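Whiteboard transcription, Tuesday session. T.W. wrote the C-alpha cells on the left side:
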C-alpha cells in the first residue's frame, strides 16, 4: 500500500512539473490597466473625463419644494382654490470635447415634477403638451405632472442647434422665485442659431426659432363661450378649426343678418427669425433683440354660413356676397414683429453680488415676445388673470375684422425692473416690478358688436343700439397689468436656498368699467356690479438644493 501511494505521488508531481514547464513556454497576457476617473480642469469645476475618451462631463441637478397661496374670494363653481405646491427634480449633463473647430458641447436637461393648485397646475403648459393632468372629480385642473426635455442642444464654432432658451430673451425672471413680471421668458424652444463675436465682449446672434411657442391665438368669437362641451374644461378643447365670423349681410342698419366663418387656427408656415446684439463687460451686460414672425389664418369654412333664425346660406351665395364686398380669399398671412432692449448693471459697490435689470419690449402681433401674459397664462385668446378674477383679459395676437375680413394685429408692450441686494453673504432680497398693456385697433370692438344678435356673448353688445351695455363688455377691451414683488432668501450653506416671495398683481381695463363676472346680477338689462380693475396677491416659499 505504501508503495502504491508513493507511486501516485511521484506521478502527480511529474504531471505538475510538466504543466509548469509548458506554461513557462507560453506568452504572458498583460492585465488590462484600470482607468480611474480623472478630473478635467479645462472647463471649470465639476468636470471629469469619461473613461476611455477625451470628453469631459459634468453632472449636476436640482431638488426643489415649493408651496404657496393666492387668496381667492370667489367661491363660484370650479373656483375657490388657494393652496399650491410642487416637488421638482432636475438633472443636467454637460459634455465637452476639444476639437479643431473649438469646443464641441452637448447639453441636456430633464425636469420631472408633480404640482398641485392654482397657478402651479398650469393650463399654459398643458396647452403646449408640456404637462398632463389628473382626471379625478376633485383633482382635475388641480393636480398635474410633467416630464420635459427642457434642454437638448449641441454647440460648436458658434452654432447652437436643439432645444434651448430663446435668444430673444434677456432678463427672463433672473431674480424671481415665481417669475410673475411681464417680460419674455421662453425657457425651452427648438432653434437653430449662429453667434459671432464681432468685438471685445460684443456678439451677434441670428436664430431661427420654433413658431409654435410664440403663437398667441387669433381671436375666434364663436368658440369663446361655446368651445367646451359639458364637463370638459376649455383648456382641453383642440378643434381642427377655430371659427371666427365674417359678416355677409346687414339689415341696412347696425345688425348683421348673415354670417360665414373663417378658420382662425394658425399653422406653422415659417420659423420665427430672431436677432440679438449683446455686450458683456465687467460692469454688466446689455442686449438689443428683434424678431419677425408670421400671423396666419386659414380659408373660409365650407357650409358654415347662416342667416337670421339659423337659416343656412349656401357656399355659392356666401361666396358671391363676399366677392361683392371685395373679400375673395379667407386664407391670409401678416407679419408681426417685436423689439426689446435690456441692461444689467453689477453693483458690487453696494454689496457683493448686487445687480439691477431694466428691460422694455414692444410688439405688433407678438404678445409672447413682450411677455405680457407670463403670469396670466398663454395660448388662449382670453382668460382671467388669476382664478376667480372679476373679468377676463383679451390677449390675442390678432383678430379678423368681421366687416373687412382682414387680419388686424394687436400691439403690446412691457417694462420691467429688478434689483437684487445681499444683506449679508447668507441673506439676499429681490425687489421687482413690471407694467404692460395690450391694445386693439380702434373700431374692432364696434365691428364685432354688429354680430351680437347672431353670435351672442362672445361679442360685445351692439355699440349702436345698446351703447350702455357695449361700454361694459370686456370683449376685446384694451387692458393693462402691473406686478410688484419682493423676496427674502437665506442660503445657510453653499447651493441651498430657503426663501419666500410675495407679489401683487393688478389687472385693469384701459378706460371705463366692465361687468363683474363673479356677481352676474343685472338691472334693466345692465350689470348691477362693475369693476375697472382686479387686485390679487400671491405668496410662495421655496426650499432648493443645487448640486
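and on the right, the sequence the group agreed on:
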Amino acid at each position: 500500500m505504501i508503495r502504491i501511494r508513493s507511486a501516485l505521488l511521484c506521478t502527480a508531481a511529474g504531471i505538475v512539473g510538466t504543466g509548469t514547464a509548458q506554461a513557462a513556454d507560453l506568452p504572458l497576457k498583460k492585465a488590462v490597466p484600470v482607468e480611474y476617473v480623472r478630473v478635467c480642469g479645462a472647463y471649470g469645476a465639476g468636470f471629469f473625463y469619461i473613461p476611455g475618451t477625451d470628453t469631459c462631463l459634468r453632472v449636476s441637478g436640482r431638488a426643489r419644494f415649493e408651496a404657496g397661496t393666492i387668496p381667492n374670494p370667489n367661491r363660484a363653481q370650479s373656483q375657490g382654490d388657494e393652496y399650491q405646491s410642487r416637488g421638482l427634480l432636475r438633472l443636467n449633463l454637460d459634455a465637452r470635447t476639444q476639437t479643431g473647430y473649438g469646443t464641441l458641447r452637448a447639453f441636456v436637461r430633464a425636469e420631472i415634477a408633480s404640482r398641485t393648485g392654482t397657478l402651479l397646475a398650469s393650463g399654459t403648459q398643458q396647452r403646449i403638451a408640456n404637462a398632463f393632468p389628473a382626471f379625478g372629480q376633485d383633482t382635475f385642473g388641480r393636480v398635474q405632472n410633467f416630464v420635459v426635455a427642457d434642454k437638448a442642444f449641441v454647440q460648436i464654432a458658434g452654432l447652437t442647434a436643439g432645444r434651448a432658451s430663446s435668444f430673444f430673451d434677456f432678463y427672463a425672471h433672473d431674480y424671481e422665485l415665481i417669475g410673475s413680471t411681464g417680460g419674455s421668458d421662453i425657457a425651452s424652444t427648438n432653434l437653430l442659431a449662429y453667434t459671432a463675436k464681432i468685438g471685445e465682449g460684443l456678439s451677434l446672434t441670428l436664430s431661427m426659432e420654433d413658431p409654435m411657442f410664440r403663437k398667441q391665438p387669433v381671436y375666434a368669437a364663436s368658440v369663446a363661450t361655446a368651445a367646451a362641451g359639458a364637463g370638459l374644461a376649455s383648456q382641453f378643447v383642440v378643434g381642427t378649426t377655430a371659427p371666427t365670423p365674417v359678416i355677409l349681410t346687414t339689415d341696412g342698419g347696425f345688425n348683421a343678418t348673415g354670417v360665414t366663418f373663417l378658420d382662425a387656427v394658425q399653422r406653422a408656415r415659417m420659423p420665427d427669425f430672431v436677432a440679438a446684439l449683446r455686450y458683456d463687460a465687467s460692469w454688466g451686460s446689455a442686449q438689443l433683440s428683434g424678431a419677425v414672425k408670421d400671423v396666419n389664418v386659414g380659408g373660409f369654412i365650407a357650409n358654415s354660413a347662416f342667416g337670421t333664425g339659423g337659416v343656412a346660406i349656401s357656399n355659392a351665395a356666401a361666396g358671391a356676397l363676399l366677392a361683392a364686398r371685395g373679400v375673395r380669399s379667407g386664407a391670409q398671412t401678416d407679419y408681426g414683429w417685436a423689439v426689446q432692449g435690456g441692461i444689467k448693471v453689477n453693483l458690487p459697490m453696494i454689496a457683493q453680488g448686487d445687480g439691477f435689470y431694466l428691460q422694455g419690449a414692444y410688439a405688433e402681433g407678438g404678445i409672447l415676445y413682450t411677455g405680457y401674459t407670463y403670469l396670466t397664462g398663454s395660448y388662449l385668446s382670453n382668460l382671467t388673470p388669476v382664478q376667480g378674477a372679476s373679468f377676463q383679459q383679451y390677449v390675442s395676437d390678432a383678430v379678423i375684422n368681421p366687416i373687412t375680413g382682414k387680419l388686424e394685429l394687436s400691439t403690446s408692450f412691457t417694462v420691467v425692473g429688478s434689483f437684487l441686494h445681499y444683506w449679508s453673504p447668507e441673506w439676499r432680497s429681490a425687489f421687482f416690478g413690471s407694467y404692460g398693456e395690450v391694445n386693439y385697433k380702434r373700431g374692432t370692438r364696434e365691428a364685432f358688436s354688429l354680430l351680437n344678435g347672431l353670435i351672442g356673448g362672445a361679442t360685445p353688445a351692439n355699440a349702436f343700439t345698446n351703447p350702455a351695455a357695449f361700454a361694459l363688455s370686456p370683449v376685446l377691451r384694451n387692458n393693462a397689468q402691473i406686478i410688484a414683488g419682493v423676496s427674502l432668501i437665506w442660503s445657510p450653506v453653499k447651493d441651498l436656498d430657503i426663501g419666500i416671495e410675495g407679489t401683487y398683481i393688478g389687472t385693469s381695463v384701459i378706460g371705463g368699467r366692465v361687468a363683474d363676472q363673479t356677481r352676474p346680477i343685472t338691472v334693466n338689462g345692465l350689470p348691477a356690479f362693475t369693476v375697472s380693475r382686479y387686485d390679487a396677491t400671491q405668496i410662495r416659499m421655496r426650499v432648493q438644493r443645487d448640486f
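Someone added at the bottom: The mean pLDDT is 89.
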